[in-house]
Amino acid sequence: MSTKIYKSDYMLTSKSYLSETANALRTNTIDVNEYVKQICKIIDTNEAKIQALLPENNRIERLLKEATELKKRFPDTTKRPPLFGVPVGIKDIIHVNRFETKAGSNLPSELFQGAEASVVTKLKNAGAIILGKTVTTEFAYFEPGPTRNPHNLKHTPGGSSSGSAAAVASGFTPLALGTQTIGSVTRPAAYCGIIGYKPTLGRIAKDGIIPFSVSADHVGMFTQDLNGLALTASIICNGWQTNFIEQNKKPVIGIVNGKYLKQATNEIIEYFEKIIEYLQKSGYTIIRLKAFENIEEINQKHKKMISAEFSIVHNEWFNTYEQLYKKATKDLILEGKNITIEELSKFRSGQVELRNNIEKQQKENKINIWLSPATTSPAPEGTNTGNPIMNLPWTYSGLPTITIPVGKTFNNLPVGLQFAGSFSEDEKLLGFVNEIYKNIKFEMGLDFM
Question: What count of other Cβ atoms lies within 10 Å of the Cβ of residue 189?
């Protein structure tokens, strides 16, 4: 099992591979109680700087008690469940039994409490233990929490799943849950140099979660290895087919040129073109298309749809507690209140229209997967959580995406790639991404996987 922490005056990075950790805990290669102690020591050393987790009194005592109970339930190592003893960070808009949900908000937390999310229950049934709640921006929008980027503490980890991404990147846990309504899994994963998975819309159940936009919300996850992603997806994704994952052929890769790509900075585009050059040298067919030439319209439709739905979710709370909302959140609610039901219906229809257009071009050009930059830039300095615009069309259309780290900029900030697949074919997407990463990581000198 790889769990290493490297320190400097402003940098913390780590490696904690979920698949290796899960196997070591199941087979008792490492005792679960000893592993908990290691994880908590890492947290005690680094959390004051990273601030990825919600505070919890006696965290280590609780985790050790749960670990001991797990060992009593599963003394036979051959019968242990797949995530036996694996700690999981849970974004603090997701309900977990015996944990308070605060949603990064100053509103009274009793307003938000509810039944445990079924995705959390599935993880527990698979043997996972809850490390704790992770910091989120206010109600999963743009108002940031205190979390910092583990690679450079002066920079943002992204949002809204900031704490989950930073916790995995810091080695606090090999697995964490997040949500994405625009780019809240993909962007933090890329900024923090880890793997992020946003499934097909609806592939992971959304019950027990404070909604942002009922039409656009996705539950996603963060890991540091694709094998760990596959393991977790098989547990929490509806109808996961493990036999579809292996892909031995080189996929045909679609690149969206034009207005969509130009939303990224020159630094990111130059890095992206370098990746494409590596792929072409490795024998991949690259097809460039101008698929999103109406990207401004796509961006507007999505923004208006989620603002309208956000205002509906918060209507009663906002009427009573308007003064407790932070500015960006308040502005989104007020914007959403001005959108009519007829307009909202049109914006919802736009999701299917966009998906059909993407898949039409995909079929006509025999494209297996799409490749794009995961972010417009490396993680910005300060608390601004960054721009999710590169993620928006894939979220609006509900298509599955996987983000992988592919290097760093001069100031130690990670850069990520975003792969998108066909609707409900997440397994094929994972297989293709795994095949691509295996082929290019050594040539590029990567050591992220």
Answer: 38
